[in-house]
Amino acid sequence: MTVSGNCHKIKSILTLLDLPFEWIEIDTRKGETKTPEFLKINPNGKIPVLQLADGTNIPESNAILYYLARDTEFFSKDLLEQTRILEWLFFEQYSHEPYVAVNRWLMKYAVDGRENSSVLENNRVKGNKAFAVMEDHLRDKNFFVGERLTIADIALYAYSHVAEDGGFSFEDFPNVRRWLENVRRFPKMISIQR
């Protein structure tokens, strides 16, 4: 789904690595991930899924990022850097995406999303806590690990660069704003269609 940050991660790494791919648009709003055919590809009924030429399927956006980037400049050969990248991938999935992405979805796509004011406010508080962690880490850094773009940045960028759609502001997060610009200017970096 073109508007999904998790799908954006995969399209970004494929584009950055100049890998050939066929993009198949799946609309979760129409229940296309719940069909028997799709559930054979991913029993969890979620996108994205990377399907390899031999028919092997790899679900979960950050697992796909790792699979595609593990031997490239967007990962690392250094064990500590690998660990730091994984830390940020886990942070993105547990402390960032559940709040930033959900608010964006509720405010931009859900029919009754804006009626969930208590959920939106709770997510805004928790999302801002995640942005505060990022802000502090980026105080003297341009990227999250090793002063170069890695899959940690790609994962965090996916929903951060459209966080304003979910009611978030970067007014108090100048380091995050600077980082977003650094990622945005990276050659071949793509943005979610808004």
Automatic annotation (TrEMBL):
InterPro entries per UniProt: Glutathione-S-Trfase_C-like (IPR010987), Glutathione-S-Trfase_C_sf (IPR036282), Glutathione_S-Trfase (IPR040079), Glutathione_S-Trfase_N (IPR004045), GST_C (IPR004046), Thioredoxin-like_sf (IPR036249)
Pfam families assigned: GST_C, GST_N_2
Domain GST N-terminal: 1-76
PROSITE patterns, per the entry: GST_CTER, GST_NTER
Domain GST C-terminal, residue spans: 78-194
Record protein name field: Glutathione S-transferase
Source organism: Leptospira yasudae
